[in-house]
Amino acid sequence: MSIIVDASVTLAWCLEDETSSYASQVLGRLTHADARVPSIWALEVANALLVAERRGRLAQNETAAVLSLLRGLPIRIDTTPPEVVFADVIPLGRTHLLSAYDAAYLELAIRTGSPIATLDEALRRAAGRVDVDVIEV
Questions:
Q1: Which CATH number fits domain 2-129: 1.10.10.10, 3.90.1510.10, 3.40.50.1010, 3.40.50.720?
Q2: pLDDT, average across residues 64-76
């Protein structure tokens, strides 16, 4: 089974002040499931880690440890072709008032029939409107 894991959940694994019970329980599920993410995920996570370093929330060695943790997880990156972005992601974002980034997670969940794990309320509501299961713990 695959779970679509968005950056909000991933960053809760990485940043001590964003830790949540929900994110920890999703992480625990990865012992018998894999995570799938759109290609934008890596850039979102990388940017958040860089910003956390600049703001003094993480030291470079802590970022390195976080990246080591992430590399060790069963995360599969889906490469969404531009034609899917243009045909599906943009309309989802438009219809549900989501960023293109959040719409990419929703599109992947729809396309793969996988549930989504997110801390983002707008993405949770949009998932409900298109009958995508949201991981509840």
A1: 3.40.50.1010
A2: 96
